[in-house]
Amino acid sequence: MKPEPRHISMVLRAGVLVSILTTIILHILNYLSIKTPAPSVAGIYLLASTPFIALLLIILDKILDKDYLTAVLGTILVLMALIHTYINILRTG
Amino acid sequence: MLPLSLAITLSFLGALAAGSLGAIAGIGGGIIIVPLLNQVVGVDIKHAIGTSLAATIATSCIGSSVYLRKGITNLRLAFFLEPTAIIGSVTGATLVGVLEPRLLKLLFAIALLYTALTMIKGKKVREANLIPEDDYGKSFLDGNYYDEYYKKVFYYRPLNKIPALILNTGAGIVSGMLGLGGGIVKVPIMNLLMRVPIKVASATSNFMIGFTAASGTIIHLKLGNVEPMLVAAVVLGIYIGSLYAAKRMVGLNPTFIRLIFAILLILSALKMMLS
Questions:
Q1: Is B43 left (phi over 0), alpha (psi -120 to 50) or beta?
Q2: CA angle A59, A80, B137 (to 5 degrees)
Q3: Residue B220 burial by CB count (10 A; 0-12/13-18/19+): exposed, middle or buried?
Q4: Least CB–CB distance from B140: residue in A58, A69, A84
Q5: Does the distance separating the beta carbons of A9 and B232 come in below 8 Å?
Q6: Minimum distance, in Å, between the CA of residue B232 and any CA atom of chain A
Q7: B209: nearest CA in chain A?
Q8: pLDDT digits (tens, 9 = 90+) for B217-274
């Protein structure tokens, strides 16, 4: 199935909702002293991943539409974000 | 900082007001949320910036979901400009770890004053570089969108690509360092410099802000500058505020609200400078 703009739109909204719910649930579990395998900031990592998940769907959509230039620019964006963030994580220790 | 339950409640209520007022006054969340967290909730400036930046991802995602569906966002333009903003954002967020909190407050106060002045003067909008339909597609960033107000499709060609690409790094630094979306820089770059229609510039900026904020947030998370529950409270507050409260306040005069808001921003800036 080809990802349509409305699917991408749904992914963005769902990503925000799931990450906020995850944050609240983890907070409640921590408050009740129930140990969880996920750290308390897991929801925020999920939130930070949401635009990139949507971006991957957009790239797929553009490839299927044969709009290769947009797909390549999107791929460069993902790679730059990953590489630059990773380098800076290493630098900040 | 206040006890967590009180901090969450205050953040939620503040974000509720910020969301509704921000929707009317036409400004984003960060410019209100950072002073709110820092001066009302008592969160230190670095945590306020990290938390606000994380909340910005959510507001960008929610806003973009509407514009993407309507086809107003110029994806190619966003992908072209965004890599430099990401470099700026990650650099800005990294700088937060080494800069003095006093200097950060001063820089934020300058950003507040700049926003307040922009609000008082009114948004400067430049005419878009529209092109005929036959000419569409000759430049790789050409775009089109259906304007619901004029009930027709507009074709446009962005200009000054390279200067815009370079200036966008600055938007990223502002975002990563001060916890703002960066829209106060990105929209003028696209509209005033590239002469993209203002609706497209706003929609594309909204989409780009999510990536800029996400990259900066990862660094802030690593530095321990994000309070997850405050992010949740702020996101819920802004979402509910912008969705429902703004609709109930349509009878109010936007110019009057902008002026009140601008005065609040100036007072907030002065308080930050003095502290």
A1: beta
A2: 45
A3: buried
A4: A69
A5: no
A6: 5
A7: A51
A8: 988 888 888 999 999 999 898 888 877 655 565 556 667 767 777 887 788 788 777 7
C-alpha closest to that of B212 among B105, B67, B59: B59
Nearest to A48 by CA among B206, B217, B51: B217
The contact set of A with B (CB < 8 A) is 5-6, 8-10, 12-13, 15-16, 19-20, 23-24, 26-27, 40-41, 43-45, 47-52, 54-55, 58, 62, 69-70, 73-74, 76-77, 80-81, 84-85, 88-89, 91-92
Closest CA to B58 of B264, B265, B228: B228
CA distance B61 to B162: 27
Q: Taking CB atoms and an 8 Å limit, are A84 and B226 in contact across chains?
A: no
* φ, ψ of residue B141 in degrees (nearest 5): -100, 5
Q: Which residues in chain B have Cβ-Cβ distances shorter than 8 Å to A55?
A: 211
DSSP string, A18-56: HHHHHHHHHHHHHHTT---SS-TTHHHHHHHHHHHHHHH
Pairs of CB atoms within 8 A across A/B: 135
Which residue has tokens 């969450």? B8
- Model pTM? 0.85
Residue appearing with tokens 């300058």: B110
CB contact under 8 A, A20 and B58: yes
